Structure formats: C-alpha cells, structure tokens
Amino acid sequence: MSAIEELITELARLPGIGRKTAQRLTFHLLQQPAEQVGRLAAALTGVSERVRACTECGNLTEEQPCAICRDPRRDPAVLCVVEEPSAVSVVDRATEFRGRYHVLGGRLSPLDGVGPESLRIAPLLERVDRGGVREVILATNPSMEGEVTATYIQQLLAGRGLRVTRLARGLPVGGDLEYVDGVTLQHALSARQEIG
C-alpha cells in the first residue's frame, strides 16, 4: 500500500470522515509545507503520549486528577454522568453546571458487545458509596442505548439515599449531546426530572 493510500485509509477511520473527505484531507496535507505537517504529526503524538483518563472522573486530562476534579469551587456532591469525555466540555461550556462529572466511556449496547463491565459504572458506584454525593444527574444521550444506560444506572443507584435525576426531555431522540445547541442543553439541565 502506498503512503498516500495508507494515510487516506487511516483518516477514513476517524468518526465522520468518509473516504472522499479523507482523500481531500490527504491531498491538502501534501500541499502544505513540511514544517506544518510536522507540527500536526507532533501534536498527534503529543496528545497520544500525554493525555489520559482522569483517575477520578474519567475525563481526558494531562494532569491527575483533572482540573474539574481539583476545582474547590465545584460541588462534589452533585455528579453529572455522561457517556464520553466530549460531553463534559459541551455541558460545561453551554450551562452553568458547577458540580463534577463522571464519564462512563460509552453506553450499553448488547448488540455491539458493550455490557456494564465495559463501562465505568463500578467506579461511579464506588464514588457514591464513599459518601458525600447527594445527586446523580444522568446525562446520557437521548438515544435508545442512552436511555437503557440511564435506566440501568438508575436501578443500581436506587435505595442508596440520593437523588437521581435525568436531563429533561426535549433533546432530540437519536442525537448526541455533542451536537445540541447551548440553549436547548441549558433548558434540559435546568428542567431535569427525578426518576425512580
């Protein structure tokens, strides 16, 4: 396989990048000065070497624990549970949420072989069992898998003496939090409802 074909293949593996887009990106990169391509390669290598999951919440960070978990102005008694690290920045940027987060690392999807053991559910239960958490906000995506994941976690948290809420309806079913506008997300967070 040629170097060009290899790069097209690798770029096409990225989410949202089809073969035609990968081909356009490859030829664009080939037209750039070598130092610019080198900076991109160095940035990719750097992020791969330095960024890890936060030991506390699972968000992506260069420091342990992450800046959100270290921030004393955030309320550790309120946890917002999201599927992916990208949702942390979306919720944080679009809302006035001042609690902390817990990243699951995906959502339940038995057809894809993703069961509870594949997600960071056990660390969530450990955080709750350590005490001090009074509310868990389930902010999984409003898809079928997101709903199943939220229901499963809600059942695990039942009887633990804390408030379990879910983002209010109105978010598009089948969508991802990453693509929801800030106003819709702020309203959904503000109007969250108790479940169970």
Please tell me about this protein's structure.
The protein is α/β, with parallel strands linked by helices. The chain has 2 domains: 48 residues, RecR Domain 1 (Helicase, Ruva Protein, domain 3, Orthogonal Bundle); 135 residues, Dna Topoisomerase Vi A Subunit, Chain: A, domain 2 (3-Layer(aba) Sandwich), CATH 3.40.1360.10. 43% of the residues lie in helices and 14% in strands. It has 8 helices and 7 strands. The strands form 2 sheets. A 5-stranded mixed sheet has the order 4-3-5-6-7. It has a two-stranded antiparallel ribbon with strand order 1-2. Strand 5, helix 7 and strand 6 form a beta-alpha-beta unit. Helix 1 crosses helix 2 and helix 5 packs across helix 8. The longest helix is centred in the first third of the chain and has 17 residues. The N and C termini lie far apart (55 Å). The mean pLDDT is 92.
* Fold-level CATH name of the largest domain: Dna Topoisomerase Vi A Subunit, Chain: A, domain 2
Structural class: alpha/beta
- Largest sheet geometry: 5 strands, mixed
- Kindly provide the radius of gyration, computed on alpha-carbon positions and rounded to a whole number of angstroms: 19 Å
The CATH architecture name of the largest domain reads: 3-Layer(aba) Sandwich
Q: What is the CATH top level name of the largest domain? A: Alpha Beta
E-strand count: 7
Helicity range of the residues? Answer: 40-55%
Indicate how many domains the architecture comprises: 2
What order do the strands of the largest sheet run in, or round the barrel if closed? 4-3-5-6-7
Kindly report the oligomeric state of this protein: single chain
Per the principal axes of the C-alpha atoms, what is the gross shape?
A: elongated
Number of helices: 8
